[in-house]
Automatic annotation (TrEMBL):
SUPFAM superfamilies in alphabetical order: MOP-like, P-loop containing nucleoside triphosphate hydrolases
GO MF terms held by the record: ABC-type ferric iron transporter activity; ATP binding; ATP hydrolysis activity
Species annotation: Pontivivens ytuae
Protein name from the UniProt record: ABC transporter ATP-binding protein
Domain ABC transporter span(s) in chain numbering: 4-241
Family: Belongs to the ABC transporter superfamily.
A cellular-component GO term for this protein: ATP-binding cassette (ABC) transporter complex, substrate-binding subunit-containing
Family matches, as PANTHER family: ABC TRANSPORTER ATP-BINDING PROTEIN, MALTODEXTRIN IMPORT ATP-BINDING PROTEIN MSMX
């Protein structure tokens, strides 16, 4: 296992980058703790796989360093980094049996035969393939082959890090849940440093201790699932995490009051936004509907019943908002006001969250 340090790291696929926009991966300075499980989460093209390939040694960064336990591996070959990597699509040896595929990384390093046999059986049970151990990989389905790839990545206990690049793409939905659970169990048992690339928030939030949210080549927030949900550091985090995502509402803020669509909203704390574009971020869970009285004027446009709750779509002077109502909660028949719970309001300036002022 290893602590991973990204020191002034950046990468461009252009030979002579001139500006920040030329960088696929903009400057990163982060330390990822030894033995933690991280998920790199973001939309396609945000830099997740680029960063993973730099960590693994498949790509050398344009600038900066990467360190494993304070040892500079920026120019080290992949084989010298002692990592295991599982790719998006299965990479297996078709002429080998499942058993031999799983055993290959251990045998290649001269591990004891009894240990190899025990470890292969343990991993085969984890990925649900103990009954296929003596089958050739050639005749197996794509999802079965990907399970072999996962197993081969997990079979070694002595790696610095386990890297997963969207490994469950070809796995059926039910098996995805089981394999995520197994990966979590493996991490809890052996304490490997794990980095898991995905664009699926469910995969990220159920797998990782810390989620690294990337947007436009930047890491915009690193936090626990609870931190990302309650206090998104950037409006993209609020939009990307949650279903539906956070409402982002242009506002004027002065002290502890905000003005939205002609209504006054108590923020529960005082803010000093200064210049820039100011907005409130409010999760749908913190939007309550009322008939008349205080609140922002809205119009209900539709109600979507998703089983455990209902998503209420609202129009606020041309802007769409979302609210969540419990399955058994009554909706006012003539609801025309939305009220925001102060504890669920975040304030943003130019997309970044600002903290409230501390009372003297």
């Amino acid at each position: 296992m290893a602590k991973i340090t990204l020191d002034n790291l950046a990468h461009s696929y252009l030979p002579n980058p001139k500006s920040e926009d030329d960088y696929a991966l903009k400057q990163l300075d982060h330390v990822w703790a030894d033995g933690e499980a991280y998920a790199l989460l973001g939309a396609s093209g945000c830099g997740k796989s680029t960063l993973l390939n730099i960590i693994s040694g498949l790509l050398e960064p344009s600038r900066g360093r990467i360190l494993f336990d304070d040892h500079d591996v920026t120019h080290a070959a992949t084989a010298e980094r002692n990592i295991a990597q599982v790719f998006q699509f299965p990479v297996v040896y078709d002429t080998m049996t499942v058993r031999d595929n799983l055993a290959f990384p251990l045998r290649n390093r001269g591990a004891d035969a009894d240990y190899v046999a025990r470890r292969v059986l343990q991993i085969a049970q984890m990925i649900g393939m103990e009954a296929e151990l003596d089958r050739k990989a050639r005749g197996l389905t794509a999802d079965a082959k990907q399970k072999i790839s996962l197993g081969r990545g997990m079979v070694r206990e002595d790696v610095n890090a386990l890297l997963f690049d969207e490994p469950l793409t070809v796995i059926d939905p039910h098996m995805k849940w089981e394999l995520r659970t197994q990966l979590k169990s493996l991490h809890q048992e052996f304490g490997h440093t794990m980095i898991y690339v995905t664009h699926d928030q469910t995969e990220a939030l159920t797998f990782a201790d810390k989620v690294v949210v990337m947007h436009d080549g930047r890491v915009v927030q690193i936090g626990t699932p609870q931190e990302l949900f309650e206090r998104p550091a950037h409006t993209f985090v609020g939009y990307f995490i949650g279903s539906p995502g956070m409402n982002v509402i242009p506002a004027e803020v002065s002290g502890r009051m905000a003005s939205v669509a002609g209504a006054q909203i108590d923020l529960g704390a005082a803010y000093a936004p200064g210049g820039g574009r100011v907005a409130l971020g409010v999760r749908p869970e913190f939007v309550q509907l009322r008939s008349g009285g205080e609140g922002v004027p809205v119009r209900v446009t539709r109600v979507e019943d998703v089983g455990r709750h209902r998503v209420v779509r609202l129009d606020m002077d041309g802007q769409e908002l979302s609210a969540i109502a419990g399955e058994g909660d009554p909706l006012p028949a003539d609801a025309d006001r939305a009220v925001f719970a102060p504890e669920g309001i975040n304030v943003y300036v130019d997309e970044w969250r600002i903290a409230p002022e501390v009372a003297a």
